[in-house]
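Example record for the data management plan.
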Amino acid sequence: MLIYIAKRLGLLIPTLFGIITLNFLLIQLAPGGPVEQMISKLESSHISEAGAGIKPSEYKASKGVPSALIEELRVQYGFDKPLWERFVLLLRSYVVFDLGQSYYRKAPVWEIICEKLPVSISLGVFSTLLMYLLAIPLGVYNAYHNGSRFDSISSFIIVVCNAVPPFLFGVVGIVFLASMWEIFPLRGLVSDDFELLSPAGKVLDYLHHITLPVLCLSLGSLAWLTFLTKHSFIDELHKPYVLCARAKGVSEARILYGHIFRNAMLLVIASFPSAFLGMFLSGSLMIEMLFSLDGLGLLGYESLLSRDYPVVFGSLYIFTLLALVFGILSDIAYTLIDPRIHFDTR
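Corresponding structural encoding:
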């Protein structure tokens, strides 16, 4: 296993380099960079000044932005250097995990990411836990009652939930549960008087706000885990060791928890790192926008629109590194759960 981990860690560096290179080229070569964004803002401010009663002769936008100012902006954002030099500087800073400074927020990228991290972690952790708490019992029950009316109805509902995007659940939840019936708050992660609440009140207030976004985010991902659990148990139910245990008169509870559960849950438990990462990194953008949650998804979207390259590149770098590391953790989880698996041998 150590040899396999060493190989995966060795492949991590070229994979990370390739992804960073591709992202750098795609984003840097795209039209409308930060210099163009700032020029557009300057021209817009001049237009607003002209509309406020300034004479046409005094209207600076009619003369265009001075070339000296454009060159100053290029130096400020580092675009006075050639493309290859900017890429080398980026790699050199990422080696020491220096993500740079935001163009517009006037703060280090690490500080901005850490500021938005609690919201994304909350959504990812609670959504993953809820998904596993619902999918595993439902998948086990459907496996033992395969073909029953409950199995057919629940499987149909799960497939429908999987086909509906999370943001549509969010819209329905906002309209009915938040606006019409006022069961859950409409926006935010805490109330305005959060600081005045007792410790128990703060916990309840936080859970009250996070419940609806978590439900909307986890329902769409419930189907694949339920079907994975169901079919894993169905495969194990018909294996010889289960038939032998039943022939010896072993109770169904002992067969389930003493024999089947560990083998059937191999894929389910080992996929937890990748499932958590998927809930943590993807699928939360629309939920954050709908419920006004200031997390990493919304940060990446806004940074991409404003061409805040340090934040965009820093977020992509951290997300890519986490995805590669969690992939290795998933493989390690396989071997810990089932000692029969050896990645070092063919």
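Summary line stored alongside the record: DSSP finds 16 helices and no strands in the chain.
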